[in-house]
Amino acid sequence: ELKAINPKVTITFYPYDVTVPIAETKKLLKTIFDKLKTVDILINGAGILDDHQIERTIAVNYTGLVNTTTAILDFWDKRKGGPGGIICNIGSVTGFNAIYQVPVYSGTKAAVVNFTSSLAKLAPITGVTAYTVNPGITRTTLVHKF
């Protein structure tokens, strides 16, 4: 569909499970960087809202985001000769104001906000700018069980 909108654009899709070990993430990123040569922005947007699956919620919402961010720093960190880059982590307003019905989800989003805030302070050293986008509740399949 994207190619149909603009035929001049190159579209490539790589399936990726954010819960894989960091070594697998690094392999995928190497493949991507080898092909594209330059990657300017990472948007960490995977997320689930299911406090009945505690380990999976933490693995997707927080650990996967940390692993992906850490892996891309190997390519971007100016201390390692990288060009720098921009990371946009998807948090939630629950990272600031927890929803008591979903404490695990809220906790993972608070962790995302704090992790990203720490990364942002390292930007002068790493060359990597980090932001968190914190949307409010949105009617998507994510909230069907909520």
From TrEMBL:
Its EC number is 1.1.1.1. The gene is Adh. It is an enzyme of class 1 (oxidoreductase). Keywords: NAD, Oxidoreductase. The lineage of its organism: Eukaryota, Metazoa, Ecdysozoa, Arthropoda, Hexapoda. It catalyses: a secondary alcohol + NAD(+) = a ketone + NADH + H(+); a primary alcohol + NAD(+) = an aldehyde + NADH + H(+). This is Alcohol dehydrogenase. One of its GO terms (cellular component) is cytosol. Homodimer.
